[in-house]
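User: Show me a protein chain along with its predicted structure.
Assistant: Here is one chain, sequence first, then structure tokens.
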Amino acid sequence: MADCNRIGRRTSVLAATFAIGAFTFAMSAWALEPAQEGSAVAYSTNDLGMQFVSVPAGQFPMGCSEGAKPVECSADEKPRHTVQVTKAFELGKTEVTQKQWQAVMGSNPSRYKGDTLPVEQVSFQDVQAFLSKLNARNDGFLYRLPTEAEWEYAARAGTADQFAGANVANSLGRRSPADDWAWYNVEKTQPVANKKPNAWGLYDMRGNVAEWVQDWYDSKYYSKSPMPDPKGSDSSDGGRGVRGGTFHDDGPWLTRVSLRMHFRRITDTLTSVFGSCVRNAKIIGESE
């Protein structure tokens, strides 16, 4: 279809918690493109004040991280495999806040209240209802959850280690104080964007609240995943996927960027979930 049939070419992902000057280097067979630390990040904003980061197309090593010990990876994180993200997209600078959720839904289900806290205690179905109402605003974009591959690509931001460049002294430590990039081992959710962002300008991809992804969870999917733009299995052995870890995890291991979690029922709200959502530039005549 001709490019003139598009309102725009930009793809965006909004990091939300309903529960999101570069240099190039090569590591092994992986092509990685992290931004320089401290480089300026440009954010775009919708009419609700949600800010988005442009994530470039590229490829990355998905799954068990470079240099991880055997005990530091679960079976469903293997094999590590190359994934290509063939289209740039935008991802939310932060998790969706309670103020933003309230503006769209007219209610706030969160246990821990605060306008700048991430919204939590929301099911996969709740998130779909939020996205439906967000799309009904007709702002020129279609909003959706990220795929599991898009989430990990954005969380890694050009890194290949377990914690996306964060300085973690003991990856398997219990009762560890939270690092400078992630909230864990704390008593409640924390205001968004109070930790350091990753190399692409995204906050709280690890910790604070876990984040729904669009994919059905399949523990063996990595052995059959296509290289370009994987979207997960057509069915599940464990419900929908969840990523990122939470504030109440007692150590950094449960916030690793490769860690895969899942809820067996899409109505589960047992943890704080709704991290990122993608917005795609709407194609003329495309239905929601």
